[in-house]
Amino acid sequence: MKRAMLIDRRQGYRLIIIFSLGMILFSQGIIAREEASARYHPLQALVKLKHETTLHSLQKEAGLPNFGLKHEYNLLGRLAGARYLVLEFVDTETLDIRAVVDRLADTPGVEAASLNVNRRLLEIPDDPLFHSQWGLHNTGQQAFIYRGVEDIDIDAPEAWARLSLNPGTGESVVAVIDTGVDPGHPDLAGNIWINNGETPGNGIDDDGNGYIDDISGYDFAGDKDGANDPFPVDFNDHGTHIAGIIAASTGNGIGVAGVDLNAKVLPLKIFSPGSERSSLSNELEAFEYVLHMKTVHEVNIVAINCSFGSEDFSSLEYDVVNRCREAGIAVVCAAGNGGG
What we know:
The chain has eight helices and 14 strands.
């Protein structure tokens, strides 16, 4: 009797251990999936297809699970002679989006494939006065808790002096892909790019670029009633701060001095209120807009600022950044201040 009770007890302990291990592994699986979802969309993939490749042939060649077309970048596709798509797959317990992307990358007719990775805003310090902007003009001044080293800077006043003698032939535009820009900020109000091809508020795509009433950039985050908003108003001052570093008015006795006295800021919003993350698909739509305005409408866009990042590489992003460089646009990214 005692032996039977001992065996039953051992079996009970064994069952408890097995159940506990199962719960731990199940919990770890949930945690891993949640962590993965924070880094990329668990059901979406971005692909660049050869122009003649159809979704039907893609499904057949790759043996993919069921999917639908979430978005196609038509403007970018026309410029590149290819098809840029966002695919969304039907959720199943066995769906591994990383494995799907790997399979897509090895499929004939696919030039590049990528997870729809998330980008996060990178933190920036508050820098309210020119005398503390030692990066522009370093006199060895005290800036917060640090003392500068004289002339370790970008020689901004010297560059401004040269510009006053030789101002150039036209206005330079810098696209700021971020949280938007405060259009009423006194240091920026006169330095926001204006799309002269659009008539404000008429609900018509006057310049034929695919976007209605994009007078001063565009909101690709869709935070206004779930739809895109023509003017990308800032919601946490991150984009406004970045725009100020680039092109804040000088000599007006307000705030900071921007690096370029004559530049105009083109605000493109990809982050929504309440979130410091944005999808790669939003980012690529902003890049597509810049490329179209540069190459088709001949807007003098000289640079794109991207003060965001993540741990994940994307071949689609790499491809589009190279297309910007080929179009004469410098792509400037944050590094070192947020680990991304």
